[in-house]
Amino acid sequence: MKHVVGKTYTAVVCFTIAECLVLFNRVHNKVKYPIIPSYTPIKLLYKGPSSFITQTSHIYTLSNPKERKNIANKTTTMVHDQKTLVDEVSGWLRVYDDGSVDRTWTGPPEVKFVSEPVPPHHHFVDGVATADVIINPVSGLSVRIYLPEKNPTDPDKFPVVLHFHGGGFCISRADWLMYYQMYTKLASSARAIVVSVYLRLAPENRIPAACDDGFEALQWLGSLSRAESHETWLDQHADFNRVFLIGDSSGGNVVHEVAARAGHVDLSPMKLSGAIPIHPGFVRSERSKSELEQPESPLLTLDMVDKFLKLALPVNCTKDHPITCPMGAAAPPLEELKLPPVLFCLAENDLIKDTEMEYYEGLKKAQKEVELLISPGMGHSFYLNKIAVDLDPNTAAQTCSLIKGISEFIHKH
């Protein structure tokens, strides 16, 4: 297992609130997204591995708006010789007629840092160490492990939280800063080892590829529990009697599918103790009331919902597919599934709130053990928006409440 050891640095980033609002409006097609109701200068103090600053330091020096615009224009005018653009999801992804996919960020460079990779660090930074591990040498399937530093009051072993990242099945990686800043906090707060899977992406790998990867990662944990394979950190510190699934957005879809598959196999001596879908991408072909009425947010627009799922679903399938609509007629009845206890996390202002609630009500009707955790006034995956978390006290408070609720669920099971 190869580790990249980084050092700690401190960078001070100066933006006005007005600039932040302009940035998000530019990225998300002029969507209104209030961060703080004031326009005073603000400083953001950020700490992280030293190797990260060399990758992104250019974004912190762009104080001149004209300079920012020029760089953004240069970024978006990349030449693709003899290729025709077939589809595009603004800023995030472009698909060409030769089947190639370009995931280079073409939005404002000032916000690119949230999707930059954070190198693993084997030493403890703010109480958490990280490592990247290949779990399948043939396919190259890998995971990122977050290990909390042992406290005197901790038990001998930590519960394990298997994480599936979001991104509409089409973008994002387990090592992105937006996940690093969230799941280091969760590992430290919940006193749990987080294992985040590098899921394959669509359209190169359409559904159910991401679910296959998630289930393979769960089976890998099972093999560790039986000493059929080995990973040093997990061998020494993991409590395989308390394994949980957690996933953001489309990762929440993976949580449901992996939990459903797990109900058909013997994972012993490992025990699947809970499932935590956070703002899962559960939708239907027909627009819901919330899709028509709720405001779009920086991390979810109707364009993203429609285009990502068009690229991710099997050819000629609709959003009524069992993985995107597990409460629908095409999916196995929820009553027939053997599911662990569920903590269902919902954002009050989520664009797809209605279909998410339909799934929750379906679990209750099927007499499954399910709890509901609502984040009032928040939008889809708000806690991954590092700028909002750092600058808006309410978003920060709601993120802390979400982490606390998840930690309590883990401790209870």
Low-confidence stretches: 1-80
Biggest β-sheet description: 8 strands, mixed
The helix tally amounts to 12
Mean residue pLDDT: 85
Number of strands: 13
Radius of gyration, taken over Cα atoms and rounded to an integer in Å: 21 Å
Mass-distribution shape:
globular
Strand percentage lies at 15-25%
Topology order in helix (H) and strand (E) letters: EHEHHEEEEEEHEHHEHEHHEHEHH
What is the spatial order of strands in the main beta sheet?
A: 6-7-9-8-10-11-12-13
Give me the secondary-structure category: alpha/beta
N→C terminal distance: 31 Å
Which percent range fits the helix content? 25-40%
* Oligomer category: single chain
In a nutshell, what does this entry contain?
The protein is of the alpha/beta class. The protein has helices at residues 17-27, 50-56, 65-76, 177-190, 209-225, 232-237, 250-262, 289-293, 302-312, 353-365, 386-391, 393-412, and strands at residues 8-16, 41-49, 85-89, 93-96, 101-102, 128-136, 141-148, 158-164, 193-197, 238-248, 272-278, 342-347, 370-375.
